[in-house]
Amino acid sequence: MAEVAESSKPMFAGLSDVSISGDIPVEGEINVPVGTPSQDNEYSTLDEPVKDTILRDLKAVGKKFVHVMYPKKSSALLRDWDLWGPLLLCVTLALMLQGGSVDSKDDGGPQFAEVFVIIWFGSVIITLNSKLLGGTISFFQSLCVLGYCIMPLTVAMVVCRLVLLGGSGTVSFIVRLIVVTASFSWSTFASTAFLADSQPPNRKALVVYPVFLFYFVIGWMILTFSPSA
Amino acid sequence: MASSDGNKNTNTEPWGGFEDNIIQGTGSAVIDMENMDDTSGSSFEDMGEMHQRMKEEEEVAEEAEATEEETGEDGEFLGMKGIKGQLGRQVADEVWQAGKRQASKAFNLYANIDILRPYFDVEPMQVRNRLIESMIPVRMINFPQKIAGELYGPMMLVFTLVAILLHGMKTSGTVIREGTLMGTAIGTCFGYWLGVSSFIYFLAYLCNAQITMLQMLSLLGYGLFGHCVVLFVTYNVHFHSLFYILWLVVGGLSTLRMVAALISRTVGQTPRLIVCGTLAALHMLFLLYLHFAYHKIVEGILDTLEGPNMPPIQRVARDLPVVATAAMNAVNATVKTLGVILQSQ
Question: Which residues are in the Yip1 domain (chain A) (predicted)?
Answer without folding.
Answer: 70-221
